[in-house]
Amino acid sequence: MPLNVDDLKRIKEEYKVTSTLREGGYKAKITVHMGTCGIAAGARKVMTVLLDEVAKGDIKDIIVTTSGCAGLCSREPMATVELIGNPPVKYIDLNPEKIIRILTEHALSGNPVKEYALVMGNETTY
């Protein structure tokens, strides 16, 4: 089966994440979605708590970043966790307690928190 444009985009993104993490010496990347809908739903508090936990724990091998709207406004605040060699996991309906658990169990220990997850892997639209 030949590759299509969407396949190539997905491969490019997977490579970009993996190479960025590896080259920087990072084992994980956490993206908090901070579109207007996310901020209105509490994403700023989620991000603040996450950054505080990373600083308090002196965690140097995790990248914390932001993005715009992930397209599912009713399930905000949302975050995506990416670990080298594993599919990304998109988490929904977050609050400060949930993001701390996600940091501890998933980003630091490699065990996705399934009850907060919407999807594992790359989403495909047809």
Task: List low-confidence stretches.
Answer: none
Residue-averaged pLDDT: 84
- Using the CA coordinates, give the radius of gyration: 15 Å
Q: What is the name of the CATH architecture?
A: 3-Layer(aba) Sandwich
Tally the helices.
4
**Net shape:** globular
How many domains comprise the coordinates? 1
CATH class: Alpha Beta
Q: How are the strands of the biggest sheet laid out side by side?
A: 2-1-3-4-5
The CATH topology corresponds to: Glutaredoxin
Straight-line distance between termini: 17 Å
How would you characterize the largest beta sheet? 5 strands, mixed
Specify the CATH homologous superfamily: Glutaredoxin
Q: In terms of structural class, how would the helical and strand content be classed?
A: alpha+beta
Q: How much of the residues is beta strand, in percent?
A: 15-25%
- Count of individual beta strands: 5
Give the oligomer, counting copies of the same chain as homo and different chains as hetero: single chain
Give the fraction of residues assigned to helices: 40-55%
Query: What are the secondary-structure elements, in order, as H or E?
Result: HEHHEEEHE
